[in-house]
């Protein structure tokens, strides 16, 4: 490796299989504890709701009959002590049973299987947008540090994290759908078009895998507007992160040496600065994914994107308790897994990192 | 910070910490005090202006915020500078009155999260052991949720009201203060002034209040300054979704949502959104400049 970072005072460590195993076991253990904690939080939260599940689910006539109400409460274990209810819930959860959604009358797990891929598709598109733009501009800002370009980008990135997501989403919607008509108003496909056969649940990917070109274009057409809007909000974060990490290496001795032998500044950056500086991008991607999952609630709401954010919103306003709990648990698991992946990726990219 | 933390979302990148002589001439501009940095100055002026607006809204606004007196959906003109909304209310007056809600609530939110988070975090860092583990695991739990989804669930569970939305935002905001103050306390705990306080017989609580508090306050205030913008965004987002301020309250997020339902009259949603943007941007300008004043190692603990 000609472009290796300078030798560190720390001892270089390789990731040994045993070390990796210990790390994974430890982290999965912590993750499991977190997930159990989340089920507890979700459970407590849903029991704070001053609603009567029987009243929400039974018709007027059935409610008038105490026997039916009793049977309903018995069927769902609502006549048992709260602690026991929680363990019943955990037990069902272990068997993949998240209960039945009160809005869709389908199993929550079925709903989630449909909505999660939609959000992942949206988030992946957004993350590519934000990393491509953010890293590019971040490097420019670092190389031109202190110059007007840098100041401009600094203002721009602060502007990016200061804009209300919903407002920008609406503005883009107004301009590109309402005024210009360049993009469809929302949803994942044009009305009347049926989804591609289910492989990943991401329509663009599935359409390509099936070789259905026109369907792919249709799905992409629907993805562009929400995807860009969602991605724009993490550009600022990625930009500042990239700038900082480029600045950390740009004055190291080996970079100075490269400059001293007469390479142009851009060649120095491209050949000697980028690799060590881009390591943190793995972390940025993880960070960005977190804020994307937050942003997705508002963006999906505006573009009627049938993903997990919109599902979370609908189940929250309708007080659909099983769905709220299901969404919370699934989102938390996604979050934990992504963070684990980020750490693993990071240690692969930079062997000096010690996994513990 | 090592990678052993369960969710190192904000773990610093210490990989190349030894390589920070990046402070060349061109970066020194950032070390000027905030009042000599143009961005921070602009931010400060905008914040002050909004505070003045919030205080004097009744004098500044041409009409009452909920007065339905004009023709609905009039475009901006010299008569109604920001136009009128779907119920014939003056959008400018509503935007001005909105500052009376958003600014104090944001300040309240951030103050509450800051106090709760930094007290818990300091306790965790100072006493360590089981207390530490318990507090920080709860913080990790909150970090394991994307903010708005937890806030959504909390706000919905408590009922769609502005008060509950405020509570929901506090619930999701305090952990970042806890993490920061825990880190700061851990770093300061072994310093000589803390040891000498102990040797002088000062109790744990007294040491925390008298010795540690003034020494960790700076970075925590910087985080708070950066967090005000987030608080405004989160709260207005909840209101936009209908889980915060209820009609006819003149709240910016709720007003944008009304604009979304009256698409042909863009001004109904445009101006309240601009109000949110300017407030958040101004606070971020100030917070950003303040963060640059901290030493790089501490600044890295404050991630945004």
Structural class of chain B: mainly alpha
The helicity of chain A comes to over 70%
Number of strands of chain B: 0
Using the coordinates shown, work out and report the CATH topology of chain A.
Answer: MetI-like fold
Please tell me about this protein's structure.
The complex is a heterodimer of chains A (356) and B (304). Chain A is 72% helix and 0% strand. Chain A is mainly α. In chain A, helix 1 (17-48) packs antiparallel against helix 15 (321-349), helix 6 (108-143) crosses helix 13 and helix 8 (165-179) packs across helix 10 (213-249). Chain B is mainly alpha-helical. Chain B has helices at 38-60, 91-127, 129-143, 147-158, 162-189, 192-199, 204-240, 252-261, 267-293, 296-301. The two termini of chain B are 16 Å apart. The chains are: A mainly alpha (356), B mainly alpha (304).
Considering the chains and any ligands shown, give keywords for the structure:
heterodimer; A: 356 residues; mainly alpha; MetI-like fold; globular; B: 304 residues; disordered N terminus
What can be said about this structure in brief?
The complex is a heterodimer of chains A (356) and B (304). Chain A has 356 residues and is mostly helical.
List the helices and strands and how they pair.
The complex is a heterodimer of chains A (356) and B (304).
Chain A: H1 17-48, H2 53-57, H3 60-64, H4 66-75, H5 82-94, H6 108-143, H7 148-162, H8 165-179, H9 203-209, H10 213-249, H11 253-260, H12 265-278, H13 281-302, H14 308-317, H15 321-349
Chain B: H1 38-60, H2 91-127, H3 129-143, H4 147-158, H5 162-189, H6 192-199, H7 204-240, H8 252-261, H9 267-293, H10 296-301
